[in-house]
Amino acid sequence: MPDDLFKALADPTRRTILDELTEQSGQTLFEICARLSMKHRLGISRQAVSQHLAVLEAAGLVETRREGRYKFHDLNTAPLRQITERWPTHDTPEPEERTP
Amino acid sequence: MKIHLTSVFVDDQARAERFYTEVLGFVKKYDVPMGEKDRWLTVVSPEEPEGTELLLEPAGHPAVGVYRDALVEEGIPLAQFAVDDVRAEYERLRALGVRFTQEPLEMGPVTTAVFDDTCGNLIQIATKPR
After folding, report:
1. Choices 3.40.50.1970, 3.10.620.30, 3.30.70.20, 3.10.180.10: CATH for B5-127
2. Is the ipTM of this complex over 0.95?
3. What is the reported pTM?
Protein backbone atom coordinates (compact mmCIF):
# COMPACT_ATOMS: atom_id res chain seq x y z
CA MET A 1 0.00 0.00 0.00
CA PRO A 2 2.64 2.68 0.87
CA ASP A 3 4.51 1.87 -2.35
CA ASP A 4 1.33 2.57 -4.33
CA LEU A 5 0.96 5.85 -2.47
CA PHE A 6 4.49 7.06 -3.13
CA LYS A 7 4.34 5.95 -6.75
CA ALA A 8 1.07 7.84 -7.19
CA LEU A 9 2.51 11.03 -5.70
CA ALA A 10 5.76 10.85 -7.66
CA ASP A 11 4.23 12.12 -10.90
CA PRO A 12 3.59 15.87 -11.40
CA THR A 13 0.51 15.30 -13.59
CA ARG A 14 -1.04 13.12 -10.89
CA ARG A 15 -0.30 15.78 -8.27
CA THR A 16 -2.03 18.33 -10.52
CA ILE A 17 -5.08 16.04 -10.76
CA LEU A 18 -5.16 15.91 -6.94
CA ASP A 19 -4.91 19.74 -6.83
CA GLU A 20 -7.90 20.04 -9.16
CA LEU A 21 -9.93 17.50 -7.19
CA THR A 22 -9.11 19.48 -4.04
CA GLU A 23 -10.66 22.53 -5.68
CA GLN A 24 -13.76 20.61 -6.78
CA SER A 25 -14.52 17.05 -5.79
CA GLY A 26 -16.83 14.88 -7.88
CA GLN A 27 -15.51 15.44 -11.42
CA THR A 28 -16.17 13.49 -14.58
CA LEU A 29 -13.24 12.32 -16.68
CA PHE A 30 -14.22 15.02 -19.19
CA GLU A 31 -13.90 17.77 -16.57
CA ILE A 32 -10.53 16.50 -15.33
CA CYS A 33 -9.23 16.44 -18.92
CA ALA A 34 -10.58 19.96 -19.55
CA ARG A 35 -8.88 21.29 -16.42
CA LEU A 36 -5.54 19.71 -17.33
CA SER A 37 -5.57 20.98 -20.91
CA MET A 38 -7.22 24.39 -20.46
CA LYS A 39 -5.91 25.46 -17.04
CA HIS A 40 -2.56 23.72 -17.02
CA ARG A 41 -1.81 23.54 -20.75
CA LEU A 42 -0.96 19.85 -20.42
CA GLY A 43 -1.15 18.15 -23.78
CA ILE A 44 -2.32 14.79 -22.53
CA SER A 45 -4.70 12.24 -24.02
CA ARG A 46 -7.89 11.07 -22.35
CA GLN A 47 -6.43 7.56 -22.22
CA ALA A 48 -3.35 8.84 -20.39
CA VAL A 49 -5.55 10.70 -17.89
CA SER A 50 -7.51 7.48 -17.36
CA GLN A 51 -4.27 5.65 -16.59
CA HIS A 52 -3.18 8.33 -14.12
CA LEU A 53 -6.57 8.06 -12.42
CA ALA A 54 -6.17 4.28 -12.18
CA VAL A 55 -2.83 4.75 -10.38
CA LEU A 56 -4.40 7.29 -8.02
CA GLU A 57 -7.31 4.94 -7.41
CA ALA A 58 -4.94 2.04 -6.63
CA ALA A 59 -3.31 4.27 -4.01
CA GLY A 60 -6.71 5.09 -2.53
CA LEU A 61 -6.32 8.81 -3.26
CA VAL A 62 -9.15 8.87 -5.79
CA GLU A 63 -12.46 7.10 -5.49
CA THR A 64 -14.95 6.66 -8.30
CA ARG A 65 -18.66 6.88 -7.74
CA ARG A 66 -21.44 6.00 -10.16
CA GLU A 67 -24.50 8.16 -10.12
CA GLY A 68 -27.07 7.11 -12.67
CA ARG A 69 -25.35 7.11 -16.06
CA TYR A 70 -22.41 9.23 -14.93
CA LYS A 71 -19.14 8.39 -13.21
CA PHE A 72 -17.57 10.90 -10.84
CA HIS A 73 -14.09 11.00 -9.29
CA ASP A 74 -13.68 12.08 -5.68
CA LEU A 75 -10.57 12.93 -3.71
CA ASN A 76 -9.72 10.88 -0.62
CA THR A 77 -6.81 12.29 1.37
CA ALA A 78 -6.99 9.61 4.10
CA PRO A 79 -4.03 7.58 2.73
CA LEU A 80 -1.79 10.67 3.17
CA ARG A 81 -2.00 10.18 6.94
CA GLN A 82 0.37 7.24 6.55
CA ILE A 83 3.10 9.76 5.72
CA THR A 84 2.73 11.84 8.88
CA GLU A 85 2.25 8.71 10.98
CA ARG A 86 5.52 7.31 9.67
CA TRP A 87 7.43 10.59 9.87
CA PRO A 88 5.60 12.68 12.46
CA THR A 89 5.87 16.43 12.09
CA HIS A 90 6.42 18.55 15.19
CA ASP A 91 4.95 22.02 15.11
CA THR A 92 7.59 24.63 15.87
CA PRO A 93 6.16 27.17 18.31
CA GLU A 94 5.69 30.75 17.19
CA PRO A 95 8.60 33.07 18.20
CA GLU A 96 6.46 35.21 20.53
CA GLU A 97 5.29 32.10 22.36
CA ARG A 98 8.87 31.16 23.11
CA THR A 99 9.72 34.46 24.80
CA PRO A 100 7.31 35.06 27.66
CA MET B 1 -19.40 25.61 -47.21
CA LYS B 2 -21.48 26.32 -44.12
CA ILE B 3 -22.67 24.21 -41.23
CA HIS B 4 -26.43 24.55 -41.47
CA LEU B 5 -27.60 21.49 -39.55
CA THR B 6 -26.24 19.21 -36.88
CA SER B 7 -28.01 16.59 -34.82
CA VAL B 8 -28.35 14.96 -31.44
CA PHE B 9 -29.99 11.57 -30.92
CA VAL B 10 -32.92 11.79 -28.53
CA ASP B 11 -34.75 8.99 -26.73
CA ASP B 12 -38.16 10.55 -27.20
CA GLN B 13 -38.88 13.31 -29.71
CA ALA B 14 -41.89 14.71 -27.85
CA ARG B 15 -39.89 15.01 -24.65
CA ALA B 16 -36.94 16.47 -26.56
CA GLU B 17 -39.20 19.05 -28.21
CA ARG B 18 -40.41 20.17 -24.78
CA PHE B 19 -36.92 20.29 -23.28
CA TYR B 20 -35.23 22.06 -26.16
CA THR B 21 -38.02 24.66 -26.56
CA GLU B 22 -39.57 25.17 -23.10
CA VAL B 23 -36.46 24.67 -20.97
CA LEU B 24 -33.58 25.71 -23.23
CA GLY B 25 -35.62 28.33 -25.12
CA PHE B 26 -35.00 27.31 -28.74
CA VAL B 27 -37.82 27.59 -31.27
CA LYS B 28 -39.13 24.84 -33.50
CA LYS B 29 -38.27 25.30 -37.18
CA TYR B 30 -39.37 22.14 -39.00
CA ASP B 31 -41.68 19.36 -37.87
CA VAL B 32 -42.31 16.92 -40.71
CA PRO B 33 -43.68 13.37 -40.24
CA MET B 34 -41.18 10.71 -41.32
CA GLY B 35 -42.44 7.14 -41.45
CA GLU B 36 -44.74 5.74 -38.78
CA LYS B 37 -43.92 7.80 -35.73
CA ASP B 38 -40.64 9.59 -36.37
CA ARG B 39 -40.46 13.27 -37.26
CA TRP B 40 -37.95 15.53 -38.98
CA LEU B 41 -37.81 17.86 -36.01
CA THR B 42 -35.42 20.80 -35.92
CA VAL B 43 -34.97 23.76 -33.60
CA VAL B 44 -33.07 27.03 -33.96
CA SER B 45 -31.99 29.77 -31.61
CA PRO B 46 -34.50 32.65 -31.40
CA GLU B 47 -31.45 34.91 -31.72
CA GLU B 48 -30.64 33.35 -35.12
CA PRO B 49 -33.82 32.04 -36.79
CA GLU B 50 -31.89 31.53 -40.03
CA GLY B 51 -28.88 30.09 -38.23
CA THR B 52 -27.72 26.51 -37.74
CA GLU B 53 -30.54 24.06 -37.11
CA LEU B 54 -30.34 21.32 -34.52
CA LEU B 55 -32.03 18.10 -35.60
CA LEU B 56 -33.59 16.13 -32.74
CA GLU B 57 -33.11 12.72 -34.28
CA PRO B 58 -34.74 9.52 -32.97
CA ALA B 59 -32.21 7.33 -31.13
CA GLY B 60 -33.61 4.09 -32.55
CA HIS B 61 -30.45 2.73 -34.16
CA PRO B 62 -28.95 -0.06 -32.01
CA ALA B 63 -25.47 1.51 -32.11
CA VAL B 64 -26.67 4.76 -30.58
CA GLY B 65 -27.17 3.39 -27.06
CA VAL B 66 -23.66 2.00 -26.74
CA TYR B 67 -22.10 5.13 -28.21
CA ARG B 68 -24.01 7.53 -25.98
CA ASP B 69 -23.67 5.51 -22.77
CA ALA B 70 -19.88 5.43 -23.14
CA LEU B 71 -19.73 9.18 -23.68
CA VAL B 72 -22.14 10.03 -20.88
CA GLU B 73 -20.27 7.83 -18.38
CA GLU B 74 -17.13 9.89 -18.95
CA GLY B 75 -19.02 13.17 -18.93
CA ILE B 76 -18.37 13.98 -22.59
CA PRO B 77 -20.86 16.42 -24.15
CA LEU B 78 -22.29 15.85 -27.63
CA ALA B 79 -22.93 19.47 -28.53
CA GLN B 80 -21.99 22.93 -27.36
CA PHE B 81 -24.25 25.97 -27.19
CA ALA B 82 -23.04 29.53 -26.69
CA VAL B 83 -24.49 31.69 -23.91
CA ASP B 84 -23.62 35.20 -22.72
CA ASP B 85 -23.22 34.19 -19.08
CA VAL B 86 -22.65 30.55 -18.17
CA ARG B 87 -23.19 31.09 -14.46
CA ALA B 88 -26.52 32.90 -14.97
CA GLU B 89 -27.68 30.17 -17.36
CA TYR B 90 -26.54 27.51 -14.89
CA GLU B 91 -28.63 29.13 -12.13
CA ARG B 92 -31.63 29.48 -14.44
CA LEU B 93 -31.52 25.87 -15.65
CA ARG B 94 -30.80 24.44 -12.22
CA ALA B 95 -33.89 26.21 -10.88
CA LEU B 96 -35.84 24.35 -13.58
CA GLY B 97 -34.48 21.03 -12.29
CA VAL B 98 -31.77 20.48 -14.91
CA ARG B 99 -28.99 18.17 -13.74
CA PHE B 100 -25.40 19.39 -14.27
CA THR B 101 -22.45 16.99 -14.42
CA GLN B 102 -20.00 19.90 -14.49
CA GLU B 103 -20.61 23.12 -12.66
CA PRO B 104 -19.46 26.40 -14.23
CA LEU B 105 -15.71 26.22 -14.65
CA GLU B 106 -13.56 29.19 -15.59
CA MET B 107 -10.63 28.21 -17.77
CA GLY B 108 -8.80 31.27 -18.99
CA PRO B 109 -11.03 33.17 -21.43
CA VAL B 110 -13.71 30.47 -21.56
CA THR B 111 -16.28 29.38 -18.98
CA THR B 112 -18.10 26.10 -19.50
CA ALA B 113 -20.66 23.89 -17.79
CA VAL B 114 -22.19 20.53 -18.76
CA PHE B 115 -25.78 19.39 -18.24
CA ASP B 116 -28.03 16.42 -19.05
CA ASP B 117 -30.66 17.13 -21.72
CA THR B 118 -32.97 14.41 -20.24
CA CYS B 119 -33.06 12.78 -23.68
CA GLY B 120 -29.85 10.80 -23.33
CA ASN B 121 -27.15 13.42 -23.99
CA LEU B 122 -24.80 15.72 -22.19
CA ILE B 123 -24.65 19.27 -23.53
CA GLN B 124 -21.97 21.87 -22.88
CA ILE B 125 -22.70 25.56 -22.57
CA ALA B 126 -19.86 28.00 -23.02
CA THR B 127 -19.16 31.68 -23.19
CA LYS B 128 -17.66 32.83 -26.44
CA PRO B 129 -14.01 33.83 -26.01
CA ARG B 130 -13.81 37.61 -26.25
Report:
1. 3.10.180.10
2. no
3. 0.89
